[in-house]
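Researcher: Next sequence.
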Amino acid sequence: MVFAPVASADPAPAWNGWYRITFHTDQKSGTSIAAKQGEEAYTAWYKIATDCATGNCVASVVDGPTPKDNAAKSTTFEWTGSQWSRTNSWRWDCVLPDRTITFDPASSVTTYNPQPDGSLKGMFATNIGSGACQGTVYIPLTAVAATPG
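Model: Next structure:
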């Protein structure tokens, strides 16, 4: 008898404790007008806790900044076998040339890839489905373990 090899994914690296996450909005790209609007990178502190008790590993934000009204109130990432990943639908706050804001329907996939030094590098990839900011926006991310301060 011949047996097919069993596919296996890498075990999830623990993602626990406080992380300084930088949204490199100054390096964003994409087809949306939002991708071309100048912004400064910004950093926020998040406390992450990983739970693998069910066999699927989930990393949850357990402390950090309060999400904006147009975003989900809880944030979790699932281990895919090679990266932490999160998919969500929300409303992009689209800043128009006259500085007014519209909220356009969007879906995002956020990924973080563990690095050998313990940090994570990722991407916040958004598809804005309609409205003035329709198109794509890609924002590079970095997460570094650190104590808030």
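Model: Residues 29 and 36 are 7 Å apart (CA to CA). The longest helix spans residues 33-36.
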